[in-house]
Structure of Signal recognition particle receptor FtsY:
Amino acid sequence: ADLYEKGLEKTNKGFGARLNKFFAQFRTVDEDFFDDLEELLIESDVGYETAENLTNELRDEAKLQKAKSRDDLKKVIVEKLVDLYDQNGDSENEQLRVHDDGQLNIYLFVGVNGAGKTTTIGKLAKRFKDEGKTVVLAAADTFRAGAVEQLVEWGKRVDAPVVTGKDQADPASVVFDATAKAIKEQADYLLVDTAGRLQNKKNLMNELEKIERTIKKLAPNEPTETLLVLDGSTGQNALLQAKDFDKTTKLTGLVLTKLDGSSKGGVVLAIRNEMKLPVKLVGLGEKASDLADFDAANYAVGLFH
Ligand code: GDP
């Protein structure tokens, strides 16, 4: 909970600071107020459409509730933000899926190079190890120079075995070996790192499909989660990537990284609003402990401090 509080603080610095500054200058609820608010939302990477819809809803709601003072309006905005963040329903949806019968959980991590896949896997491996679970890592990003070594390094740090292939090995063969090992050793988790870039987009998508088929050969009901890792500091670009991957891969959730360095935390809102995919984890730094679960309501409320 402490980490989350700390994380929230960092995550909300940019977007939250703007909102707070905006409200500090509050005078009266008029058309200028809503225009300025819409502009602020767009500048914070909330996205044009989301910013417009949100502003319209706020205008209606403020009228309905006869909101006049600064505090009235803040209350209305927080309500609307919570609605937006939480629109995928129950908060259980935000948690990583875990089999409750002790069966192996396989999490597949996809996303472009540099998004933070390897780092997220390292952090998550640390979390599971700290919980006393057994973890196997699969270094199936055999294309990016250094990706395998990076994961091997994390494996050493958190004391988890890493399955690797030869240089330029077929990623699916690495995944096959890793899945077989995790099943044989009755591991709790298998975390699979995948390539972020191949010769072209089509090859990448074919490769991801092949990896999924390979997993299903040994574990028919897997993967438990296919998580798209997005660099939150890239703003609207992250949204475009998400749409691209979503077309070809059956995603179950998102991981938003680098929210610590982002002054435009609004992208969380844009992605939630447009992708209808739960944000399962957020990355808040480069250290092993800088990973938090995402809580929609807390996030929205935490914007105002
Ligand atoms: P991959 O290519 O998707 O596997 O990306 P990496 O895991 O190699 O991450 C790319 C860079 O982003 C590395 O320098 C990481 O240390 C950094 N990184 C990853 N997640 C975070 C985060 O949440 N916050 C910050 N500040 N840096 C991160």
